[in-house]
Amino acid sequence: MEKLLEEKLKEEKVITKDDLLISKPPRHIGMISLGNRELDKGLGGGLPHPSLVSIEGDYGSGKTVLAMQMIHSMLKAGLKVCVVSSEATVKEYLSMMESIKLDAKSYYLSGALNIYPLHVEGGNWSKAMSAFFLRVTGNFMEMQRLRYGAMVIDSLSLLTMDVPPYAFLNFVTRLKNIVSDGRTIIVTFHPNFLPEESMMKLRASSDVYLTLKNGKISGMNIKLLTIVKLWGSSGDRRDTITLEVNPHLGLRVMPLGGVKV
Fold first, then answer.
1. pTM of the predicted model over 0.85
2. Strands (E), 34-164
């Protein structure tokens, strides 16, 4: 498998006409289990599908880890997933998933998981470059929406540097249109990365809105997940869930108590 992975990583990812062919629509599952009984319970049954999922959090708060848990769960449920990453290469993204006990190599090799890294030469992002990539990402997602059951943007922050409010509102509308076609979209971002008007539009448009903060419990570093908004769940849910990222066990839910943020 390692040799196959290395060969696939060397392939240049180019969009071809085959990428635009209409494939069999993804099945509508309703609720997708996240592979963790306590996490599913805290969310009222799992992750609603289809839905627009927004994950807000500071650097190191676990946004990408939670998104990866969702990605792996959707793959296990039979959905084809596309990830647009502005912070990691394909190899880095797969390695990060493996480090938290989410091995996605077989899904990547089979084509069930595709990862598209956004690279700017020299790493010098600018307002113009950010706005350009936002448009490109929106166009790409619309062209690919019939090919995937779920699409992920990790992270949205770099794509919205000083983007005019109208441009961001158009982008959110495009995402909602894709969700209305039966797809789930997950976006991660940092707090206050947008003007309040645009943030309100994103909150209002999201079916699921989650925030993550770093905290401590009994001297242990934890992640505090707050459920701001959750439509589509069928059971009781918690307002907050305490998480730990354990390199040996992956993402796990901790007993809530004595949390310091």
1. yes
2. 47-49, 52-57, 81-85, 113-117, 150-154
